[in-house]
Amino acid sequence: MASDLDFSPPEVPEPTFLENLLRYGLFLGAIFQLICVLAIIIPVPKSHEAETEPSEPRSGEVRKPKAAAPTNKRPKKEAKKKR
């Protein structure tokens, strides 16, 4: 009766290269997503240098008025005659 029981580990095939690639790719993708979510949730303080030296002067900046919408070179089509 004791000889009928088989306590050997089950035969599990070794994972193939593609299975390993898929497994680790999924882990890397999950880690990347967590980093992206944490980057959105946790605000990054701006450096002090960026506050003192703005790249674009905002006060006293002279803005050019936007150019008018381009005019069409072609004349407008006339309405079709009703028959």
From TrEMBL:
GO cellular component labels: membrane
Source taxonomy: Eukaryota, Metazoa, Chordata, Craniata, Vertebrata
Compartments where found: Membrane
Biased composition annotated in UniProt, kind: Basic and acidic residues: 47-64
Region Disordered: start-end pairs: 47-83
Topology of the protein relative to the lipid bilayer: Single-pass membrane protein
Biased composition (Basic residues): 73-83
UniProt keywords, alphabetically: Membrane, Transmembrane, Transmembrane helix
Name this polypeptide is given: Mannosidase beta like
Assigned protein family: Belongs to the UPF0239 family.
Signal peptide: none
Gene behind the chain: MANBAL
Source species, domain of life: Eukaryota
InterPro entries: UPF0239
Main location: membrane
